[in-house]
Amino acid sequence: MTEGAIPETAPAVDPDMTVDNRGTGCASGIARVQRALEDGEGGAILRIRSTDRRAKREYAQLAAQTDHELLAIETDRSGLFRTEYTTYLEIGGE
Fold it and tell me: Given this model, what pLDDT does residue 27 score?
C-alpha cells in the first residue's frame, strides 16, 4: 500500500479500544499496540494516537504484513512543532 492510498478521514464508527502513544518511544509504543491487537476481538476497531512521525509508514506496514485492516491515518498539526497521528485499525481474525 502506498502512502497516497491511505484514507485520511476517520471511519464513521466509534473505536473499541485506544492506545495513546503520544510522547513515547517507538519500542514501547509498538509493544502497546501489539498487546492491544492480541487482546482485541476480531472486527474490533483500535485507535492509536501517536506523535511519532514514522506512524504513517509503520502502521501501514503492520497492516500490510498481518490480517489487520488499516482504515485511516489522520494527521493533525496542532501547533508549530507538534504533529499528531491517529491511526484506525480493524483487528483481524474474526
Answer: 67
